[in-house]
Amino acid sequence: MSMSIPIIEKIKTADNLPSLPTVAIQVIQMTQTEDVSVADIARVIQQDPALTVKVLKVVNSSLFGMSRKISSVQQAMVVLGLRTVKVMVLSFSLVDTMQRRRAGNFDFTGYWRRSLTTAVTAKLLAERLSKSVAEEAFVSGLLCDIGMLAAFHCAGELYLPVLEAYERKEGTIQEIEQRVLGTTHEAITAALLGHWGLPEALCRPVATHHAPVGRPSADGQPPEPLVRVLRAAATLADLFCTDTQAGHLDACRHTLIEELPLAEAALNGVLDAVDSHVKETASLFALKIGPTKSYQEIQAEAVVQLARLSMAAEIERAQTAQREQAARQEVEQLNTRNRELVEKAATDALTGIGNRSAFEDRLKAACSSTAGGRQAMGLLLMDLDRFKKLNDTFGHQVGDEALRQVGGVLRKLGSDTRVPCRYGGEEFALIVTDCTAQSLRELAEELRMSVQQLAIRFGHKQISITVSIGATFAEPGEPDLEPKTIIKRADECLYDAKYAGRNRVVFSPLTGPRPRLPQPVHA
User: Fold this and answer.
1) What would you report as the CA-atom Rg of the chain, rounded to the nearest whole angstrom?
2) Which of 42, 104, 328, 338 has its CA 20 to 30 A from that of 25?
3) CB–CB of 170/118 below 8 Å?
4) Smallest Cα–Cα separation from 198: which of 140, 130, 115?
5) Which of these is catalytic: 426, 446, 478, 492?
6) What whole-number distance in Å separates Cα of residue 380 and Cα of residue 412?
7) For residue 444, what are the CA distances in angstroms to 413, 424, 432, 448?
8) Widest CA span of the chain, in angstroms?
């Protein structure tokens, strides 16, 4: 069995459940009789001098705006009507009844501040939307949360966990009540008012006062005016009695303008009047409600909240941008490191140009492009002349310096279309993809002359070096062009250059016979 039945029944049968004062019960019963007179009801009310004084205070307050002073209950009933005075008697009686039950750690100050705010707001809204329910709107607002008080007083062991969870901000009071008790204070209030014999017209609105303003009734019909007004008043009480949340004010205003419906100017009038009326009503009811907030203060709080959110969003945006930039930098650094590693893996350590692996990769790509008809290409293979003798005579350090200097000459020629590599030992290669046959021959000759001008210091001596170069050229669209084919022809030309006396260039197209060479020169 759910807990909703036990707690409601426990409250109804509790020994300490407060009962309505005799005067209030008599007034309610008399107003349900058709032939009752104003004088009879006035006499009943006047049996309670304290209640009479309170009624006259309210009648003469700014809540009613009387042009002349009302001096008797009977006069008040004539001016305001029987229903209005009945509602006042009921309101004062219930407040007095519940006020005498103060105990424990229940937040009475906050409770009455919210109840009065809901009551005053409901009356102000009703006066602009449906004046016929304005007085019922006030008492409904005043009573709508009374189930919380009753639950705390009569079933504290069940309700205290709800209050403790609410203090820990584990959800709205209704969510926690439903989770812990299986019911809400709305249902408890409606059952309690019915138990006291109050009219259904008062019990029905409080049963759903936390629902959305325009939610239809159980039979699908639009909510009654009093139901709609009380829901709107409870929504506005959140603004006046809790910390302002950014965006809540605008969302609340938009909802009420659309769903009540209510003109914006009329809503602004209600909001501007709430705080002063709440303070005056608290004084008339002798209730301590603590500090209150005006609509202007709520607006200022909303602006501050929005500014804080905007600042927080800007800080978060800046921090996100900073994190993203740091991540990008980290990726860039990683990519740079990877590129450096790749370049290092493809670079000859001694000469600073491509190594054999890089040569094979680039030559394969160039051959594929030329075979596809996208470009011509040339290949220069060169070999340092008499390198073994250079090493044997002057030592490997001089030999290494010769290799470094030749590598430096090739580096200066290097570009996207001219790729220098160390082929192996004292052999070098230059892959060229921006050439004609003539320009390739000229480039090879330029390279040979540049090496010939090098001088390697050894003590007081200047040692000259030379290279022999084999050059070959492939036209675009060369069928079945493969690296081994063009290397073979360039290597054959290099051999011919060595055979013909070194320090020279021998050129031959990839296809066709090699040129006739002069007799070998041996030195």
Assistant:
1) 50
2) 104
3) no
4) 140
5) 426
6) 16
7) 11, 19, 10, 6
8) 149
